[in-house]
């Protein structure tokens, strides 16, 4: 009779993985609702819905906390790979002068547009673009050896 209510709560919460596990949480919540229900405080179906939803949400919260604390080896590899890339970029940028470094850094790492960089450096858009292209060419040439 109340299985549909449990299924409905699972669907409302958008749970599609580990369905059986959350269904079991719903059944446990239903059992607790039955055990603690007081007829003087209202109807059982309303109390059951709130209790079942609470148990399912509690399980979701625990699952989320575990996933947050668990750092996979692959994530560490990504971090080290990023640091490796950052070091390589610094090596490539060593062939640039200060103005070129600034423009490349602001463009790639800060995400500014050419127009924004031009305003900050009091240069024209076309000057910034020209220096930017020169800097990229210098970096390409340093890669080729």
How is the main sheet built?
Answer: none
Measured as a percent range, the helix fraction is: over 70%
The name of the CATH superfamily of the largest domain reads: Winged helix-like DNA-binding domain superfamily/Winged helix DNA-binding domain
What do the pLDDT scores average to? 82
Number of helices: 7
What's the SSE pattern? HHHHHHH
CATH topology of the largest domain: Arc Repressor Mutant, subunit A
- The separation of the N and C termini measures 75 Å
Radius of gyration based on Cα positions: 29 Å
Overall form: rod-shaped
Second rung of CATH, namely the architecture of the largest domain: Orthogonal Bundle
Count of spatially separate domains: 2
Low-confidence stretches: none
Structural class: mainly alpha
What is the CATH domain class of the largest domain? Mainly Alpha
Instruction: Tell me the β content.
Output: under 5%
Q: Specify the oligomeric state.
A: single chain
Number of strands: 0
Task: Give a brief rundown of this model.
Keywords: DNA-binding, Sigma factor, Transcription, Transcription regulation. By secondary structure, the chain is mainly α. It has 7 helices and no strands.
Plain-language structure description:
This is RNA polymerase sigma-28 factor. Residues 13-63, 93-141 form the RNA polymerase sigma-70 region domain. Keywords: DNA-binding, Sigma factor, Transcription, Transcription regulation. Pfam families: Sigma70_r2 (PF04542), Sigma70_r4 (PF04545). The protein is mainly alpha-helical and 145 residues long. It folds into two domains: 3-69, no CATH class; 73-144, Orthogonal Bundle (Arc Repressor Mutant, subunit A). It has helices at 3-12, 19-36, 44-69, 73-93, 98-110, 114-121, 125-144. Helix 1 (3-12) packs across helix 2, helix 2 (19-36) crosses helix 3 and helix 6 packs across helix 7 (125-144). The protein starts with a helix and ends with a helix.
């Amino acid at each position: 009779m109340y299985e549909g209510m449990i299924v409905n709560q699972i669907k409302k919460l958008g749970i599609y993985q580990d369905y059986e596990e959350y269904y079991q949480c719903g059944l446990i919540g239903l059992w607790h609702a039955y055990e603690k229900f007081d007829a003087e405080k209202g109807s059982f179906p309303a109390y059951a819905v709130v209790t079942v939803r609470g148990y399912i949400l509690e399980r979701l919260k625990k699952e989320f906390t575990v996933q947050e604390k668990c750092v996979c080896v692959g994530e560490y590899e990504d971090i080290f790979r990023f640091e490796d890339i950052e070091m390589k970029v610094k090596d490539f940028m060593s062939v640039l002068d200060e103005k070129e470094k600034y423009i490349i850094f602001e463009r790639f790492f800060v995400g500014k547009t050419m127009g924004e960089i031009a305003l900050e450096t009091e240069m024209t858009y076309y000057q910034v673009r020209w220096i930017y292209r020169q800097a990229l060419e210098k970096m390409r040439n340093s890669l080729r050896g």
